[in-house]
């Protein structure tokens, strides 16, 4: 039970850091219903340097949306 409490506290601390850091960014991803700071941080981390995509279409293809 102590391990569960420890991990829950760790998760809360990490989420607080993510929320704080993401609040500093102009983040249009969070305008999508259901996407909050944690999910948008994951998306941004997965994409990496967005300038590597020449167009929105190429980014959408990379994301598996087309």
Automatic annotation (TrEMBL):
Coiled-coil boundaries: none
MF-aspect GO terms: DNA binding; transposase activity
GO biological process, one term: DNA transposition
Pfam families in alphabetical order: Transposase_20 (PF02371)
InterPro entries per record: Transpos_IS110, Transposase_20
Domain Transposase IS116/IS110/IS902 C-terminal: 27-66
Record-linked PANTHER family: TRANSPOSASE FOR INSERTION SEQUENCE ELEMENT IS1111A
Protein name: Transposase IS116/IS110/IS902 family protein
Species this protein is from: Desulfoscipio geothermicus DSM 3669
